[in-house]
Amino acid sequence: MVYRGGPGVGLAGFCQRSLLAFLYTPASMLENMFVLGFESSCDETGVALVQTRANGVPVLLGHALYSQIEMHQAYGGVVPELASRDHIRRVLPLTQQVLSESACDLARVDVLAFTRGPGLAGALLVGAGVACAMAAAMDKPVLGVHHLEGHLLSPFLSADPPEFPFVALLVSGGHTQLMRVDAVGRYVLLGETIDDAAGEAFDKTAKLLGLGYPGGPALSRLAEQGNPSVYKLPRPLLNSGNLDFSFAGLKTAVMVQARKVALLHACAVEALPTPVLADLAASTQAAIVEVLVKKALLALGQTGLRRLVVAGGVGANRSLRQQLGTACVRHGTRVHYPELHLCTDNGAMIAMAAAMRLQCGASRTSKSYAFDIKPRWGLDSLE
Ligand code: KG4
Ligand code: ZN
């Protein structure tokens, strides 16, 4: 078969191993392959269908998502057992929705992909179990996908996909990492948080301020009304010179400040007047964003790269996007994000990561149906 990659593809350098893969893999296995992906690592059930193309990024044909946020809100956080049970309830109707909206018959699906880890064990087992059961029934192969690789490659689902190589800032509820990404499957960890993740810092501070769960979006909404310079909060490891982060101390600093103000107002922290809470929220957000922006620029400086990808739930944060945008224009760097609705967990990123790995030969499917999930799994240990 002829490799037709080129300037028109918009993804020059798409996986350096792709040429070899193309040489040794029959064309029919790479083109028009339908990959159905399942995401169930935490509190979102996502299902999506993508189709590979001969010489470019796979295309998203359809996706459906059910967020369990409302259910967990009553408990102030994710309850793993409830999450697993709800994934079971949602996954098949969502699958039917995706297939009917994409006008694709289940029998036409070539590969069933699922989030293998990291995540909640019981929740992961649902996606893995469903993918393996469907695949076994149809004698089709499966592929387990790394959740963070899904986030990392999610900007390829956007209208403005990046080209390799790039620096990736992965900012989710469980991870804060800077990676150098040379191709699909070729990731070098440059730095990461030594304690809490950025999303965790948003969530924990939001809880402290009585904003409920999940805290990130609520805190960032409230922060829009506040003044970020009212409270002086620490910027942990800002000038450490390396690419590590530390956010655990921030919530304690916010707590100390919040309790002081609450004493003055003779009320509980959550009962503080909205303008005071907004200033606390804005000051917290400013501290997190300043550290993320500075370290992302440091990573670009150290690698000499001029492309940045921001992925994971915190990538939806408006202030982070604004400040990274300004800093990167000054630095001559292009920033790529997933579509706003694909920043948080979804099935599209899992189907996409599976399709991209298969397309460039970084992964092979299996028919073992062992659904061997990996609740703890570092992206840097991915083969
Ligand atoms: O990537 P994600 O959906 O799940 C994980 O893989 O962890 O990220 C969820 C995290 C949560 O901590 C949530 O509070 C945060 O992303 N988040 C935000 C925003 N939207 C979601 N944090 C700050 N600002 C936002 N707009
Ligand atoms: Zn995630």
Summarize the structure in words.
The chain has 383 residues and is α/β, with parallel strands linked by helices. It has 2 domains: 10-156 and 343-381, ATPase, nucleotide binding domain (Nucleotidyltransferase, domain 5, 2-Layer Sandwich), CATH 3.30.420; 164-337, ATPase, nucleotide binding domain (Nucleotidyltransferase, domain 5). It has 12 helices and 10 strands. The protein has helices at 18-24, 27-30, 69-73, 80-101, 121-138, 147-153, 198-208, 215-223, 248-264, 274-303, 318-331, 347-359; strands spanning 34-39, 44-53, 56-67, 111-117, 142-146, 166-171, 176-183, 186-192, 307-311, 334-336. Strands 3-2-1-4-5 form a 5-stranded mixed sheet, sandwiched between helices. A 5-stranded mixed sheet has the order 8-7-6-9-10, sandwiched between helices. Strand 1 and strand 2 (44-53) form a beta hairpin. Bound molecules: 5'-O-[(R)-(carboxyoxy)(hydroxy)phosphoryl]adenosine and zinc ion. Residues 42, 151, 172-174, 199, 202-203, 214-217, 220, 312-314, 316-317, 344-345 line the site of 5'-O-[(R)-(carboxyoxy)(hydroxy)phosphoryl]adenosine.
